[in-house]
């Protein structure tokens, strides 16, 4: 049986129940409770101070920018922002946690009761967001030499104290594909509003996945396993697919799924047991004594709300309704905020949303991909692309010539009108100027002329093509058609 067939058979018997915990590094310049800079790749243990080293007597001071970014994330995820929230100490020991506790939020988080809409094969589905809370990050342990006789673990505390938000979803996802779509939507929203770059290679977005199986039609959840610290959307999907299959095999054999924490091993494509979790870990939470409760005024909340840009789902819907775009084109144009901004700037010049979308999604993105550039680095300003579309619509430039001009615009950065003027590429629409070319084509193709006059009118397409060829693509096809029909009676 193929892997896809086996997966389909599992889903006829069992329903996966998936919830995700997403940790996101906030895009501040300094840490959450001190003024140490956040600098990826800095020399180990150089961006540290008594506060993030957890030295006795050091007192934390909350980063206002981190709070504003966390509020923005909560609003963008349709959460209620609580006017009163509190930090707490989450006590546990790791070698890279110098304080012996993490400053987090527990029973009184910053934001609650939100949602994210995703697209599935059955249409739109709403995934609940339980809470968004703030916390500081731990340092980083680097293991070396474990395959040799000498074993070392190094600790780099540069990351200690980096501001995070944790986004906890409801267990509303029912497949690995839905989990992937949820992660992609959350990442896109947070990047759009400037909360985080969400660069997973730099550890700016990490994910823990909780998954269990229950028989189809059952209401009670099964025993869950937690897969920790997966740093790629693709690996999250693969880990969930493996875990669903593993748990199904246990249940089919009459065995029990053990509640535990597991890790995803990339090399083997399997999840492996990390530690048992028969009971909830006792973190001994208590209110952080060195920080006052966080109060968010209505004025401050409105300031953050009004600073938010249009969100990707709203932008996609507007592009479909306002410009008549296909859903696919709207998705591509809103994949990154910079792409949407470029497109709209071009439309302001072209006044043609659909044609501009075709040029951005097709020709321009093809040139950018070949050059290894992002749209923010495009040598073609949006106003120039909009001008190109406008010239086509005015009949001053044919689509064929435009496809020749755009690469030149990309190469040298000139406006299309300047290139047209310099290279004599303006479209010929005047019937008087076209008559000589049409007469030559009629004289050179007597057989097709006779076919047309004999009633085979479709042959006019061939004659138009010959005129376009003779004019080096500069003739206006519509005007050529009219002149030919007039000449041929």
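Sequence proposed for the structure above (489 residues):
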């Amino acid at each position: 049986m193929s892997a896809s067939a086996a997966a389909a058979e599992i889903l006829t018997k069992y329903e996966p129940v998936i919830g995700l915990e997403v940790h996101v590094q906030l895009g501040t310049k300094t840490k959450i409770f001190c003024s140490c800079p956040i600098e990826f790749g800095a020399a180990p243990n150089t961006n540290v101070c008594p506060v993030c080293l957890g030295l006795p007597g050091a007192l934390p001071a909350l980063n206002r920018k981190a709070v504003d970014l966390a509020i923005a994330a909560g609003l963008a995820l349709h959460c209620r922002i609580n006017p009163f929230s509190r930090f707490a100490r989450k006590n546990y020991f790791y070698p890279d946690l110098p304080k012996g506790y993490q400053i987090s939020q527990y029973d009184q988080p910053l934001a609650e009761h939100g949602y994210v809409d995703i697209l599935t094969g059955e249409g739109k589905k709403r995934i609940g967001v339980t809470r968004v809370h703030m916390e500081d990050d731990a340092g980083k342990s680097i293991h070396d030499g474990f395959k040799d006789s000498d074993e070392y673990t190094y600790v780099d505390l540069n990351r200690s104290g980096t501001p995070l938000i944790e986004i906890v979803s409801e267990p509303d996802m029912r497949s690995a594909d839905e989990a992937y779509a949820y992660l992609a939507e959350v990442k896109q929203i947070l990047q759009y509003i400037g909360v985080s770059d969400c660069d997973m290679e730099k550890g700016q977005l990490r994910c823990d996945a909780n998954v269990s199986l229950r028989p189809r039609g059952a209401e009670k959840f099964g025993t869950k396993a937690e897969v920790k610290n997966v740093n790629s959307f693709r690996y999250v999907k693969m880990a969930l697919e493996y875990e669903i299959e593993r748990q199904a095999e246990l249940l089919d054999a009459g065995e029990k799924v053990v509640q535990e924490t597991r890790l995803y091993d990339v090399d083997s494509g399997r999840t492996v047991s990390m530690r048992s979790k028969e009971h909830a870990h006792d973190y001994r939470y208590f209110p952080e004594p060195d920080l006052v409760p966080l109060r968010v005024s209505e004025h401050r909340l409105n300031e953050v709300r009004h600073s938010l840009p249009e969100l990707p789902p709203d932008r996609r819907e507007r592009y479909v309704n306002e410009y008549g775009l296909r859903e696919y084109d709207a998705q591509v144009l809103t994949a990154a905020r910079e792409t949407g901004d470029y497109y709209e700037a071009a439309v302001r010049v072209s006044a043609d949303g659909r044609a501009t979308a075709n040029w951005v999604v097709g020709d321009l993105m093809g040139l950018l991909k070949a050059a290894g550039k992002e749209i923010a680095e495009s040598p073609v300003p949006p106003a120039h692309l909009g001008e190109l579309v406008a010239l086509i619509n005015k009949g001053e430039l044919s689509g064929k010539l435009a496809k020749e001009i755009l690469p030149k615009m990309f190469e040298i950065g000139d406006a299309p009108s300047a290139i047209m003027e310099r290279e004599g590429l303006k479209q010929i629409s005047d019937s008087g100027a076209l008559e000589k070319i049409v007469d030559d084509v009629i004289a050179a193709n007597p057989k097709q002329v006779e076919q047309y006059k004999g009633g085979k009118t479709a042959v006019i397409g061939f004659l138009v093509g010959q005129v376009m060829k003779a004019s080096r693509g500069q003739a206006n096809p519509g005007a050529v058609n009219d002149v030919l029909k007039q000449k041929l009676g």
